[in-house]
Fold this sequence. Notes:
Elements: H1 14-30, E1 41-46, H2 52-63, E2 67-72, H3 73-76, H4 84-94, E3 97-101, H5 105-114, E4 119-123, H6 129-143, E5 150-154, H7 159-170, E6 174-178, H8 187-199, E7 203-207, H9 210-214, E8 219-222, H10 234-240, H11 248-251, E9 259-262, H12 274-277, H13 284-303
Parallel strand pairs: 1-2, 1-3, 3-4, 5-6, 5-8, 6-7, 8-9
Helix pairs in contact: 1-6, 1-13, 2-13, 4-5, 6-7, 6-13, 7-8
Amino acid sequence: MRGRDLLSISELTPDEVELILRTALSLKRDGGGHELLRNKTLALLFEKPSLRTRVSFDVAMQELGGHAIYLNQSEVGLGQREPVADVARVLSRYVDVIAARTYSHGTLLDLARHANIPVINALSDEEHPCQALADLLTVRERFDTLRGVRLAFVGDGFNVAQSLAEGAALAGMSFAMASPAGYSLPEGTRRLISESAERNGGRADFYDTPAEAVRDADVVYTDVWASMGQEDSYAQRKEAFAGFAITAGMMALAKPTAIFMHDLPAHRGEEVMDDVIEGPQSVVFDQAENRLHAQKAILALTASDHAL
């Protein structure tokens, strides 16, 4: 994977997903103090604000012996003050890898097209591969496997859901998604995910009601109903998602051993009740920690000069 971009989970093979997770687990067990990225620099190019993404990437570089530089939109003016292509070519002369958090996936594609260093998708309007890999790592730690694990996603068919569905399909999981009418993943995307799941020994099902997806699930996952950039449709979304909140009653439909996941930040009292996210089945903070370890693996595999 050295020198490769990571813009979408769908660009990976099942073996590469396994390699990233295995590397993440190894780096997590070892802790910090590695020199795999000694004298390497990561540019954090962010159009959107962030807590977990920014801190986890910064700490990941430090623990791998490298350095990170944070560049926000007011400083760079990506696509406004300066063309995306020029930013990509300039940064390629200064740093070794770019992690970009953008509104448009097209901006990421532009960066990758013109940069001659790896570009990592730290979130776009279509995909969130780093989050999905951290999620798979969390499930793997809890169940010792991914194959055959039933993961139910209840919520909006946006970037987190798409990357998670793609990753689950590559890992041979049983993925079930429930969204209100008009808020699921696009039909073409659903078809591709179902085909990928079938090829890899899993399955993917899409439902209109949350109870169908959650029943007998090993993992129950939800996300906010209105992501950054969707604030104008908040009232409409809140009405559409009525009945889709993860409550204690909803969790009772899953297996007794099921875990609850949320990529955070959460709107408690909306998509998830406080007694669920603070309850014994919740692993949301393990999940947040695993952003660090998954991203260490991604950085090491794409940007290190050393064999792992």
